[in-house]
Amino acid sequence: MPKIVFLPHADLCPEGAALEAKTGETVLDVALRNGIDIEHACEKSCACTTCHVIVREGFDSLEESTELEDDMLDKAWGLEPESRLGCQAVVDDEDLVVEIPRYTINMVSEGH
Description:
The chain has helices spanning 27-33, 67-73, and strands spanning 3-6, 17-20, 52-57, 83-85, 96-99.
């Protein structure tokens, strides 16, 4: 079973976390299932950038992003070459190390 290591984030997971993931599950779903409340204003429909994450290790194990995801990512704060939308990054069989950016483009948290 693959693992996702979430690097420490001051607000969402100050200590960081190492979580079990199921193949075929999204990075966002793993985080939410384990109490890491990453924003997801569009309810996981690839229509916003609030679940933007940076995959520091294991990026190449993910399926390529779609054109729609790339268009959304162009609007993300702190975009990097290893950026993905958490709702679209599907876990395969390789471990991942993920950083949650400090900011999103949202002015106000959705508070899911």
